[in-house]
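Weekly structure sync, notes
Attendees: PL, DS, HV (note-taker this week)

Item 1: Cationic amino acid transporter C-terminal domain-containing protein
DS walked through the input record. Source organism listed as Papaver atlanticum. Sequence as pasted into the shared doc:
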Amino acid sequence: MSLSASLLQPNQISEVNRPAGLRSYWRWGKDEFFPEQSFQNWKSYRSAISQFGVRFKDRFLNRSTDRYELEVLQKQSENSLKRCLTWWDLMWLSFSSVVGTGIFVLTGQEAHNHAGPAIVLSYAISGLSALLSVFCYTEFAVEIPVAGGSFSYLRVELGDFVAFIAAGNILLEAVVGAAGLARSWTSYFATLINREPDSLRIHVSSLAEGYNLLDPIAAVVLLITSTIAVFGTRGTSKLNWIVSILSVALIIFVIVAGFVKANPSNLTPFVPNGTGSIFQAAAVLTWAYTGFDMVATMAEETKRPATDIPIGLIGSMSMITVVYCLMALSLCMMQKYTEMDVSAAFSVAFERVGMKWAKYLVAVGALKGMTTGLLVTSLGQARYTTQIARSHMIPPWFALVHPKTGTPIYATLLVTITAASVSMFSSLEVLSSVSSLSTLFIFMLVAVALLVRRYYARDITSKSDLRKLVLFLSMIIASSIGTIVYYNHTTDGWIGHLLTIPFWVLGNIGILIFLPQQRVPKFWGVPLVPWLPSLSIGINLFLIGSLGYEAFVRFGVCTVVMLVYYFFVGLHATYDVSNQNQGYPDTAERKENNK
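Item 1 (cont.): predicted structure, written out as tokens:
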């Protein structure tokens, strides 16, 4: 019996077993959303709730496998995603999503509010963090080329519960990131037609600050770009890399013109708000590098994952980090950081130095970059959502792939409509802080998962070695947290770092000396393991600790909402799927190994 058939009651199986080509894609009955046994009626749901303890233990200890993610879950979509992308496509998709999301959106905000001219260093720090994460993502994407990206990687190495926490943050990042980018689109469009950045928004005085500027244009832009994305991945990719030539031309212009109009005195003081502001800005600027994780979700649609993914992701991210630093430097040399516009910094800066015509050129280029960024983001968000739905953590209806377009239309609509609603109300500063914390948290978890993948193998690693791995990972994580806590609570002290940093080093040395690597990557692997993944853990935790109090409050509220959903819905759906499909050999193997 097929996996999808086993999820339904006997009287439903004949409909499910009907060939996918004979079933309408446009269907939305209850059993499409909640086919699991726990949701058949109130009695079965109450029974499921009463077994919460047993079920939670089962899900907490359960870990997926490469084979299950690659072979079994893909059947939930009924139709396959089309393998149509090459390294060239991936490189430009990554370039467009990252550049469109970052440099034009956050540079003015963070230079004005926090780092000043030292925003250049902030970009370098967040770029290093992103590049280390790219290494980890690339190894996973080559080994497990599925649409779920980090969700699938964590499900295999850290288990279902951790994967759900990541899934919730992935969806939060997707919604918030798209909403923030769409609002910036409105700001740049306003400058293009010679108006103030907020002039096209509707002010509602009765709403709280940060949520009182309604933006219907942002919502419309999101709907349009998502509509283009659902018509096909290959077509969207071709459109993206052709028009990306405009972005390259614009970037060259901004850098050259910025240095031509440079006033070195604008770089003084270089660090106006102390070194802490550099890291605070770097934490927010991590959002500017989030496009690559969306591109990693397209591994399932890549023709040759083993070669295309490393070239496409690592090559583009290295280039983007250099470009970001040069563009930020040119902006800071053109205009004093205290005078920067937080919504459309580059356009306003050119106007102030007498190049009013360039203001329109920058605005057009920025709009183009943000539009392609929204296109790529729409592709990546939908792939994340598809794999999460395949696992039944959210209704499996969202996993369905359209037979003609080869795209997950329902998943795209879910994220798009939610993001459009959020973009109507929330300011860019609110959105960027929430998205950055979620992103950094996921990057940190992926680095942990990579170390687990290298040094732990079920049925091979002894319990003694497993305890050692847990100990050394705990040392790395604890020392990283200790470093940022000490840094935030002292002004000029360094004694504490003599304890935390050597403790981090000892954790890595312990892994090197006492634990053999249990898995060697078949095609491409992260170099200098465990040092680079551990450094990624440390930097990401340090940047998380640099975010403001409000970001943690918003993150905490979102996490509570996620857990409520998981405890009452997601937990029981995934438990039913696992148990109803226990006849599949790989599932039985997983259950035995997880005991």
